């Protein structure tokens, strides 16, 4: 997956970020290859979300470099990073429960015809996006609050991919899902991967990452303590890294 | 004392928190000196100080109860009308001309009544999940309606019987020449300080207000705690009502009017946070004294010398420059808003500390950020969207079209009217009147639809209506401005009120109900100020055309259809304002249902964070909606005086209630995210018809007729608002019918919604 010749879609080098006296990230390196699914794991407050927020521009780094497609960037806000194709899906989905699926997929950028909203186009395209994800819902006219958690998550992802992103970051996507819904979601993620979208999963559930991931990266107290290719490791080893977090010099084999 | 802020952002230095009360005292002393300078005759002696203390006692007692409510993160707008109602009930029980019972019986009855009102408020808020400000606002109007209905607007006095009665000692001077009310205040304050600061009850309140969910997890019965707060508040209001009658030995229907403003301002000035979790009884008591003092200073006249010319001779006349009494609430409203803003913007953001550091050229202290001042969390939202079963039953589908109920109800109500008075109901005259009343409510409801769909609320529409009406009348009569300019300026005044609402909610991040509550008093006060003591009527005829029937316009243009034709009848029933409202409704309806802006409104109300994240400028959306609502109210105010050809100070009173109820009945949700203009129009029709039916003269079979006294109508309207909100929460949002159905007819065993067939 990570042959050194290809340009990583996102690369971060020597990232440092402090909040007052707290060193949230120390000299962290990060790399995401096109079409790769990377699991980002670690204890609470290990810096996983902070790292992703530095990447999307929600936080400003103290030092270090963020490169997207080899270009050095400096995002001022998440909006900047979304403009070039980095999308983050939050734990609580960020959907409007009172609106229907179609309206949510196009939240904030509903297609217009003249002064008014082009409902026909909106629902047709929403349908197409859902098809592309192979998510089957009853109808695009269904209110999102009447959907189960897993379906809401699917709508959130459908909304995200309708932007044609390069990178999707999923923050604890399976935290509130039933086993069945998790299964569905993982299928969706594999489908995305097949379509060449790079993904970062922040998760506590190692078995989810082992099911869909290519690579896993472990953070501990703001430091990168190890990276493994999924095919070369097992849950036990990753767990060891999370708990013991012995610094290594050579991250990968 | 108790601290509820997270450890990362420490509470301001302890000396500042303790210094708050000291600051109040210093400010009070300053203000008193100013008062004494302005009018030495009144504020000079110790009598004056005692008088201030005496009058502050009643508000202080109420403030003690209110402190518990506000610390719990609730609000009680009904204290003023509870005071009035208690005073009336006591008087009816005691007065020789009525029940003629002993005083202790009346007093017990009243305290029970206060507790009862608190209980109802509390149950509505905790068990039935009605937002506190809506529940207690409706209670305010119901109480006011009861006061008017029970007294019939007349005074009830009983000075003769009260002579020598022990109960009335409460209102007399006692120890050291101090009024005994001050003693009562002192006792209540001490009990309050002990209760909130030293007992489990108090600590439970701080926990509930600070983080209700955490408190719930920790095993604190938060519902009980909040219920208790409302009951304490009701009890204290009842006590204040008794103190009031004990002093005056009479009651008028004005008792306690606007008292909620003083009491809430007192508690907030006293250092409590509208965010909940913070506040002290001592501060509230000092705040009460301070606010009453401000109130007195404002009402006090400044002695001036005016020169007038009588019969060619110039004379110097001693006069008092004085604010008209109606204007005082404008300042109190401002104080309320200022006090609410102090807490997040001055204290929590550490503005002073940062300023001080900057002055000395040192780096600002860590911690204090403007983000800490975000008090958006107090939104009225009470329900969270959870995964819900989507089943296509008949009931849910009917209820799914949220406007249905309002349309059906409007038709049914019209039918009832036609049955009750077949001779009169469908007549041209009545239809005209109905349409006219409908127009005013509908105009307000159209604007309110956007605000409520946004998840905000606008309590100021009635007051803005009055203010812009007063402005137009004042400019035309007193300033003799041309109608066009007067209308434009009046409209601008209303719009300005909306802009202030918008700035306060979006920039200063106050909850909309607090910002617009402040505007409610400010706008009404300004309106009263403008018209004070003047008869404003007789406007230019060109202006009055705004309020005429269509047929009169057509007549004056010479293009009226022949009498007797359908077009003539229609033109006689429809007035210009109705036409204007209709056009506005169509435009607003299209915008809300069909444009990006309308979708953005609904999205903002549904989940503001999500809308923000999706790139919708939610602050702009909310701002525009509040301004639009105020514009609608301003237009309604201008039309109001054009139709009545004069300005009446009671313009727009209770209209905020009508407008809110219309929107809720018409499918809006008090938590935001829903609403349609069509539904709101149907809701406005329902409200108009209910009002018309309530004041309909009903012919009884035996030839007599019956008409409900106007005073009682408000009681019903308050009740209807509560019912509408309850129906919305429980039928539409919580799917009560569906849940009852599944409880009694359990068809399938908990199939996960995922797998449920469509």
Quickly list its features.
heterodimer; A: 253 residues; alpha/beta; Rossmann fold; 2 domains; 4-stranded antiparallel sheet; 12 strands; B: 758 residues; mainly alpha; ABC transporter involved in vitamin B12 uptake, BtuC; two-stranded antiparallel sheet; disordered C terminus
Quick summary of this structure?
The complex is a heterodimer of chains A (253) and B (758). Chain A has 253 residues and is of the alpha/beta class. Chain A has helices spanning 48-56, 78-83, 101-105, 119-133, 149-161, 179-194, 206-212, 235-244, and strands at residues 10-19, 22-32, 37-41, 63-68, 71-73, 86-89, 112-113, 116-117, 167-171, 198-202, 215-220, 223-229.
Give the helix level of chain A as a range of percent. Answer: 25-40%
Flag low-confidence runs of chain A. 249-253
What string gives the helices and strands of chain A in order? EEEHEEHEHEEHHEHEHEEH
Total DSSP helices of chain B = 32
Strand content of chain B: under 5%
CATH class of the largest domain in chain B: Mainly Alpha
| Number of domain modules of chain B | 2
Query: Quick one: biggest sheet of chain B?
Result: 2 strands, antiparallel
Write the topology of this structure.
The complex is a heterodimer of chains A (253) and B (758).
Chain A: E1 10-19, E2 22-32, E3 37-41, H1 48-56, E4 63-68, E5 71-73, H2 78-83, E6 86-89, H3 101-105, E7 112-113, E8 116-117, H4 119-133, H5 149-161, E9 167-171, H6 179-194, E10 198-202, H7 206-212, E11 215-220, E12 223-229, H8 235-244
Parallel strand pairs in A: 3-10, 3-11, 6-9, 9-10
Antiparallel strand pairs in A: 1-2, 1-4, 4-5, 7-8, 11-12
Helix pairs in contact in A: 4-5, 5-6
Chain B: H1 14-38, H2 40-43, H3 46-71, H4 79-94, H5 103-126, H6 132-151, E1 156-157, H7 159-162, H8 180-198, H9 200-210, H10 212-217, H11 222-248, E2 250-251, H12 259-269, H13 281-299, E3 302-310, E4 313-321, H14 328-348, H15 351-359, H16 394-400, H17 404-420, H18 428-453, H19 461-477, H20 483-507, H21 512-531, H22 541-544, H23 550-557, H24 566-573, H25 576-594, H26 596-606, H27 608-613, H28 618-644, H29 655-665, H30 677-694, E5 698-699, E6 705-706, H31 710-733, H32 736-744
Helix pairs in contact in B: 1-13, 3-8, 3-11, 3-12, 3-13, 4-5, 4-6, 4-11, 5-6, 5-11, 6-31, 8-9, 9-11, 12-13, 12-14, 14-21, 17-30, 18-25, 18-26, 18-28, 18-29, 18-30, 19-20, 19-21, 19-28, 20-21, 20-28, 23-24, 25-26, 26-28, 29-30, 29-31
């Amino acid at each position: 997956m990570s042959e050194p010749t290809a340009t990583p879609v996102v690369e971060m080098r020597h990232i440092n970020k402090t909040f007052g006296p707290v060193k949230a990230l120390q000299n962290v390196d990060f790399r995401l290859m096109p079409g790769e699914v990377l699991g980002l794991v670690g204890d609470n407050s290990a810096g996983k979300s902070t790292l992703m927020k530095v990447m999307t521009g929600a936080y400003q780094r103290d030092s270090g470099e963020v490169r997207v497609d080899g270009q050095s960037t400096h995002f001022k806000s998440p909006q900047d990073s979304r403009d070039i194709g980095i999308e983050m899906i939050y734990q609580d989905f960020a959907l409007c429960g009172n609106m229907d699926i179609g309206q949510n997929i196009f939240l904030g950028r509903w297609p217009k015809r003249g002064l008014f909203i082009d409902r026909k186009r909106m629902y047709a395209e929403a349908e197409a996006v859902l098809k592309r994800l192979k998510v089957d819902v009853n109808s695009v006219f269904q209110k999102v609050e009447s959907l189960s958690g897993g379906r809401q998550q699917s709508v959130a992802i459908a909304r995200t991919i309708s932007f044609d992103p390069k990178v999707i970051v999923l923050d604890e996507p399976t935290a509130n899902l039933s086993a069945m819904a998790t299964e569905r979601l993982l299928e969706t993620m594999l489908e995305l991967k097949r379509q060449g979208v790079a993904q970062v999963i922040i998760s506590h559930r190692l078995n989810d990452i082992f099911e869909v991931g290519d690579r896993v990266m472990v953070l501990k107290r703001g430091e990168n303590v190890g990276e493994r290719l999924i095919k070369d490791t097992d849950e036990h080893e990753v767990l060891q890294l999370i708990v013991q977090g012995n610094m290594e010099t050579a991250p990968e084999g | 004392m108790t601290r509820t802020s997270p450890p990362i952002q420490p509470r301001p230095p302890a000396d500042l928190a303790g210094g708050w009360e000291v600051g109040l005292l210093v400010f009070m002393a300053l203000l008193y000196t100013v008062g004494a300078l302005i009018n030495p005759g009144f504020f000079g002696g110790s009598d004056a100080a005692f008088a201030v203390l005496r009058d502050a006692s009643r508000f202080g007692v109420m403030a003690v109860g209110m402190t518990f409510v506000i610390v719990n993160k609730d609000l009680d707008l009904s204290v003023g009308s509870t005071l009035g109602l208690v005073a009336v009930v006591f008087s009816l029980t005691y007065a020789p001309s009525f029940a003629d019972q002993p005083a202790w019986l009346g007093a017990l009855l009243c305290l029970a009544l206060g507790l009862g009102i608190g209980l109802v408020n509390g149950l509505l808020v905790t068990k039935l999940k009605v937002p506190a400000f809506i529940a207690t606002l409706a209670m305010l109007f119901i109480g006011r309606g009861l006061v008017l209905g029970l007294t019939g607007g007349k005074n009830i006095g009983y000075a003769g019987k009260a002579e020598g009665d022990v109960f009335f000692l409460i209102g007399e001077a006692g120890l050291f020449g101090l009024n005994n009310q001050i003693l009562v205040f002192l006792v209540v304050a001490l009990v309050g300080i002990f209760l909130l600061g030293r007992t489990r009850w108090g600590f439970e309140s701080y926990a509930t207000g600070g983080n209700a969910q955490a408190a719930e997890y920790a095993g604190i019965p938060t519902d009980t705690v909040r219920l208790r707060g409302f009951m304490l508040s009701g009890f204290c209001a009842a006590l204040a009502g008794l103190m009031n009658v004990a002093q005056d030995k009479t009651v008028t229907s004005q008792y306690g009017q606007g008292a909620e403003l003083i009491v809430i301002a007192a508690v907030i000035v006293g250092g409590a946070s509208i965010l909940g979790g913070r506040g002290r009884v001592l501060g509230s008591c000092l705040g009460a004294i301070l606010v009453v003092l401000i109130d007195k200073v404002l009402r006090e006249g400044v002695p001036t010398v005016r020169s007038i010319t009588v019969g060619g001779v110039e004379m110097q006349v001693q006069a008092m420059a004085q604010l008209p009494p109606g204007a005082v609430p404008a300042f109190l409203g401002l104080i309320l808003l200022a006090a609410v803003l102090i807490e997040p913007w001055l204290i929590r953001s550490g503005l002073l500390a940062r300023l001080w550091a900057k002055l000395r050229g040192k780096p600002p202290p860590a911690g204090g950020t403007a983000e800490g001042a975000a008090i958006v969390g107090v939104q009225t939202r009470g329900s969270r969207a959870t995964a819900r079963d989507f089943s296509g039953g008949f009931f849910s589908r009917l209820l799914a079209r949220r406007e249905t109920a309002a349309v059906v109800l409007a038709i049914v109500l019209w039918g009832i009217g036609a049955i009750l008075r077949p001779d009169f109901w469908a007549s041209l005259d009545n239809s005209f009147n109905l349409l006219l009343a409908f127009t005013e409510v509908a105009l307000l409801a159209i604007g309110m639809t956007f605000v409520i769909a946004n998840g905000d609320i606008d309590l100021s529409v009635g007051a803005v209506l009055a203010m812009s009406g007063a402005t137009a009348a004042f400019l035309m009569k007193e300033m003799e401005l041309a109608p066009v300019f007067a209308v434009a300026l009046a409209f601008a005044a209303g719009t300005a009120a909306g802009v202030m609402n918008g700035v306060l909610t979006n920039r200063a991040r106050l909850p909309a109900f607090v910002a617009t509550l402040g505007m409610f008093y400010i706008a009404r006060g300004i309106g009263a100020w403008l018209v004070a003591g003047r008869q404003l009527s007789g406007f230019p005829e060109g202006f009055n055309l705004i309020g005429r029937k269509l047929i009169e316009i057509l007549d004056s243009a010479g293009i009226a259809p022949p009498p007797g034709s359908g077009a003539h009848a229609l033109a006689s029933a429809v007035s210009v304002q109705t036409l204007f409202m209709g056009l506005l409704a169509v435009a607003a309806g299209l915008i809300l249902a069909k444009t990006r802006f309308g979708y953005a409104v609904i999205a903002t109300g549904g989940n503001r964070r999500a809308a923000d994240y999706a790139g919708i400028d939610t602050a702009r959306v909310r701002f525009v909606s509040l301004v639009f609502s105020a514009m609608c109210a301003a237009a309604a105010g201008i039309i109001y005086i054009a139709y009545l050809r004069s300005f009446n100070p009671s313009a727009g009173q209770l209209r905020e209630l009508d407008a809110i109820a219309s929107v809720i009945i018409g499918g809006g949700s008090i938590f935001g995210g829903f609403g349609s203009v069509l539904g709101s129009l149907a809701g406005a029709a329902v409200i108009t018809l209910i009002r018309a039916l309530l004041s309909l003269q009903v012919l009884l079979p035996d030839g007599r007729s019956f008409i409900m006294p106007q005073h009682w109508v408000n009681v019903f309207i308050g009740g209807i608002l509560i019912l509408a909100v309850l129906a919305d929460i429980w039928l539409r949002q919580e799917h009560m019918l569906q849940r009852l159905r599944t409880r009694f007819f359990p068809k399938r065993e908990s199939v996960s919604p995922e797998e449920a067939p469509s």
